[in-house]
Amino acid sequence: MLSIHGYPDVVAAATAGKGDSDLQLFGISVLTSMNEEKLVSAGYYGSMRGLIGQRTDYAVIAGITGLVCAVSDIGLIRNWSGGTLKTIAPGIRMPEPNQRRSNSYRDAEESY
After folding, report:
1. What's this model's pTM, rounded to 2 decimal places?
2. pLDDT at 90
3. How big is the CA angle at 54 (ends 2 and 105), to the nearest 5 degrees?
4. Which residue of 21, 104, 108, 110 has the lowest C-beta tally within 10 Å?
5. For residue 50, what pLDDT band results from cuts at 50, 70 and 90?
6. Structural domain total, the chain
């Protein structure tokens, strides 16, 4: 398993580089340290939901295994991908100052 940035060029390059191997590629959708305000300050325009949707589309088109995402994004990714992508949600922790979209263990259990 290898996690990669969810940016289209990176997803495409990793997919090409993996070739016929059994390596599972997981794109990072949007970091859990990001919220709408942080997206704008990082130069992204549009909504968090829209960016996650774009990253989901890239993942499906490229044929990668899934996305690393916030617990709160699991349902959106499942719906947007038609259930074809696996999800990994590492942002399961108690709220921290640098984590804007973290979730509790209970939230994670309910999402899966």
Report:
1. 0.81
2. 77
3. 60
4. 21
5. very high
6. 1
